[in-house]
Amino acid sequence: MVTIKDVAAHAGVAFKTVSRVVNNDPTVKPKNREKVLKAIEELGYRPNRAAQMTRRKKSGVIGFIADELLRVPYTFDLIRGAQDLAWKHNKELMVLNVNVNKYSVEGAVNHLFEHRVEGIIYAAMYHREVSLPLQFKEVPTVLANCYDSYGRYPSIVPDEKEAAREITANLIDKGYKRIAFLNLNENIIAAKLRKEGVEQAFINANINLDNLLVESVIFGEENNERSVTRSRAEDIIKNFKPDAILCGQDPMAVEVYFVVQALGLKVGKDIGVGSFDDWDIIPTLLQPELTTMALPHYEMGQWAFNCLLEERTEPVKETARFTLNSRQSF
Question: Is the pTM of this model over 0.70?
């Protein structure tokens, strides 16, 4: 096994120089850093994590508890955001996917404690309030895409209201004055905030709210949800006669596209369609391509990791902005 002393001899530098390079010490001279990195590559050296942990009394491990994140493609960006910074700072991200129940979460925390994690990021699949077991108070904990019921931990959530206001204002600026909003389940935090944002855009533009129709699609069985979305979209187009339809998430927009086509209309020409999430490849597969608000998952993952890295413990609640990805659907 190649040791750190072997690397030092091969690079022609001191033992401590190699140690500082391995630990990302910014004070190492660029010339020496280059020598060490070249030697590491040529010799195939791998740091001994167990030895490092013994010396530093720190594990270098950050726990990431994913509250059913792996069910939805775009939520992977939460993990990716944290992972990119973990690599940069020579940390390991230990990801555990859990179900939303007390025993699953407690088991995950106990497993992370066994690996002496330096901190934990708890991330939810969708924007919601969470109540975490008291074990989380034993290590620095940061919440992403959710917030604590008792305000005990730093947290970051998407700015749902501003995202809805922005995309609605964009629709209005392009001449759409009569808009139907197929919102998410009204019991979801995001749905309430997005409704407020859409209404705010109408108020700011001095457009009567009679020109806005907001309806919630109740989540249930997937097939039933699809049929309800199609049925409501068809009824709204025929009776409310909107200039545009704003959808609570991209899969809803797919169903709206089908309805618009079935009625002999064209998206982007006869009726505008906008959405939220920027879900995987859906927006670019649709024709015309779908304008949608991209959730800031990557940015939330990075914020959460930085919060732990900077040892920030104040229980702030930050918001992260969506990104408007403009395409041809309106």
Answer: yes
